[in-house]
Amino acid sequence: MPITADVHRLLRLRQDNAAWTLLRADTAPAILALLGRHFDHGTRRLPAPELFARLDSDLQAMRDEGLDFPRTGQAYCTEWVRSGYLLRRAAAGTREETLEPTEGAFAAMAFVANFTSSASSATESRLTTLSTQLQALARDSDPRTETRLTALLAERAALDQQIAAVESGVFPVLDGARAVERSAEILALASEVPADFARVRAELEELNRDLRARILDDDGDRGDTLGDVFRGVDLIGDSDAGRSFSAFYDMILDPARSSQIDEWIDAVLQRPFAAELTQDQRKRFRALLTEMETAGSEVHSTMTSLSRSLRHFVQSRHYEEHRRLQRLLRSAQQSAVAVAKRRRPFDLLDLELVRVGMSIESVTALRLHNPADDLVTDPVVTNEAGAVDLDELRRLVRESEIDMDELTDNVAATLRAHGRATIGDVLRDHPATQGLASAVGLIILATQHGHAIDGTEDISWVSGAGTARQATIRRRVFDPMSDQFTARAVPEQTGVPR
Known about the structure:
single chain, mainly alpha, three-stranded antiparallel β-sheet, two-stranded antiparallel sheet, 62% helix, disordered C terminus
């Protein structure tokens, strides 16, 4: 292939590929940061209103730092959908839409992540993975009995040697640094799964469009395609992308395999080196199988829906109406080409055309107006203002709120009396007038204006129903120097009302 062909191919790719256009955009750092923040570690799609609200919050934080992003999150999402960075879908069972990154957006995020990752590009774990896969490929693709048997015997001998070493108690154990490196490599491979699923879904949807175009093409092989669909052949499921994904989906749904993967994950997280993993890495290990099962189920549902829709399109004879409309459009185009040789677009015609237009709206967008809704039928009643009963108002407030002022006064009084006070000391001097709410309020005050000490203590109170309750809590001592309590001592010492 000449070099010019490669150049033109890459020029078209630079113009049409969403990943390339995203990386070339002036606002690429902001777009990648926002998408990476909300679509990472298993999150593949979000309801559109939720994503709009999240982006609005992020954009405001960016503006506070002096960055120029004047538009709303919804406006930017609309632009990203138009540019091919986000994909808008209708959520099943609801009226709202969802947004998810396209295959190109995932590819751009993975490309940039390679620059910020601290892992080396040539780690021992990666080389081990390559050699293991290469060995398996060479063995499983070998049609010769002799060489394949020799390879299996060599593997068995190596396995017997490892068994003997384990039985003797002398065997190597993967150390912390190498184990953490291998864990990072596993998670790096798992991070590529969302992009793989997006690519499979895009291939299935492209195949669906191609099959429908072949059915409508008068000059193509529609007879073969129609015949296959009428015979019940699943053209989407039997495609290369469909067969490859089905094999993967069957594997992750295998109960034995799933149980084994769960056991492996539990075993890895119980190893001593797991303490060196970050909290995010441990969380990703826990969610590894669940994320693959969920994403796989979504792609499988898409493949099933496309297959069912294509079969219905053919068996309901809807394709015949589409084909007739296509012939009419092509006939109009051919006539326009023939007329263009004699008449120019700006020539005046002695023909008056009546333009017909119609506005298409969803029925659910229509709202009926009932004039009776605006009529007031009930007589207007004027109520005279009465005096406010402060005691009754205080009682109503105490039914729904913890009286922190009362509890603070109780703590201050106990501190003045004893010089030192725990929650149990306060409750012994001042019974809990609000029951459990008083105990909870004292715990809050001790947490905010005190410190924990060794040991536990029993506290008791009487519930609103008159039942005695008791609980064992960790001992906490109130800080006698806290302004929260020293300020309360002033009114009682000086006689100044609060």
